[in-house]
UniProtKB/TrEMBL annotation:
The keyword Transferase applies. One of its GO terms (biological process) is glutathione metabolic process. PROSITE patterns: GST_NTER (PS50404). The keyword Transferase applies. This is Glutathione S-transferase. It comes from the Bacteria. GO terms for molecular function: glutathione transferase activity. Residues 1-82 form the GST N-terminal domain. The lineage of its organism: Bacteria, Pseudomonadati, Pseudomonadota, Betaproteobacteria, Burkholderiales. InterPro entries: Glutathione-S-Trfase_C_sf (IPR036282), Glutathione_S-Trfase_N (IPR004045), Thioredoxin-like_sf (IPR036249). Keywords: Transferase.
Length: 205
């Protein structure tokens, strides 16, 4: 398997965490790319019409995208029925928590792009604040969920939330999200110590 990736992408980190959790990290060849919200990278577009990372290229040449699909593929390939629980309440909880983590990331990325990808004369402060409001509301929801979140044996829900909180630390340290979310902070402190999280800490290229 080959993975088109960017070392700072939180969605790539989700895939990398799942690869470590399912024992497949060593089976993946990591292909660097120049993913960008405006400048299209032909190396990615050749395998994914959206030209976005992560994109997984299977041994038979088939491409899988996005992180949700790739993570479930890795769990299925490894015979892991815990990361993505079978049909029933546990599955819907895990998928809804994945949506919460991904939604926080979507909003945070849009807020970041407003400053880093859009020219200064075209930036819209109200738009950015609306995205950060979603981030804050997501943090409040995670705070309420924190006592129920798994630590040592996570589902895709915890992986997604953990990668989202890690992204806030990486790109939005000024939010100091721990100050108003102590239970989420306590959970994340333990979750971040997992080997799969430690092996995937984002860094600038």
């Amino acid at each position: 398997m080959k993975l088109l990736y960017a070392p700072t992408s939180p969605y790539v980190r989700k895939v990398m965490v799942c690869a470590h959790l399912t024992g497949q990290a060593g089976q993946i060849q990591w292909l660097d790319s120049a993913a960008h919200p405006i400048r299209r990278d032909g190396r990615i577009a050749a395998h994914n019409p959206l030209a976005k990372v992560p994109t997984l290229i299977l041994d038979d040449g088939q491409s899988l995208y996005d992180s949700r699909v790739i993570c479930e593929y890795l769990a299925s390939a490894a015979g892991d029925d815990h990361l993505f629980p079978a049909a029933g309440p546990a599955r819907w909880r895990a998928l809804t928590r994945q949506a919460l983590g991904d939604g926080l990331l979507d909003a945070a990325l849009l807020a970041r792009y407003e400053r880093t990808a859009r020219p200064a004369d075209k930036q819209w402060d109200d738009w950015r604040e609306a995205q950060l409001l979603k981030v804050g509301a997501s943090l409040d929801a995670i705070e309420a969920l924190a006592p129920q979140l798994a630590g040592a044996r996570p589902t895709i829900g915890e992986v997604s939330i953990g990668c989202a909180l890690g992204y806030l630390d990486f790109r939005f340290p000024e939010l100091t999200w721990r100050d108003r979310h102590p239970r989420a902070a306590e959970w994340f402190g333990a979750f971040h110590a997992l080997p799969a999280m430690q092996a995937t800490i984002p860094h600038e290229a």
